Prior knowledge:
Layout: E1 3-8, E2 13-18, E3 22-26, E4 30-34, H1 35-43, E5 52-55, E6 61-65, E7 68-72, H2 74-88
Antiparallel strand pairs: 1-2, 2-3, 3-4, 5-6, 6-7
Helix pairs in contact: 1-2
Amino acid sequence: xxxxxxxxRNIDNILASADERGLSVIAGWTMVIPRAVAVxxxxxxxxxxxxxxxxxxxxxxxxxxxxxxxxLSETEASAVVELIKEAYGS
Length: 90
């Protein structure tokens, strides 16, 4: 069974879901992150701007995976991190 959260925004919504395969984040396009990689991203939170979650100078959190980058508020990033923890027990 997949766990899912929806984060409302002014223009669109972000839908994040976690299942046995991994994390999917949909925000106009889809970012799919394998389970083990998602867990690693929260373990290494704010360590690399090239991959995972990284807080930028504007106070936003950028989620980078492969060629994709998604800018989140700290609250939105926390919700995605908590989803990962709840789904995978990290």
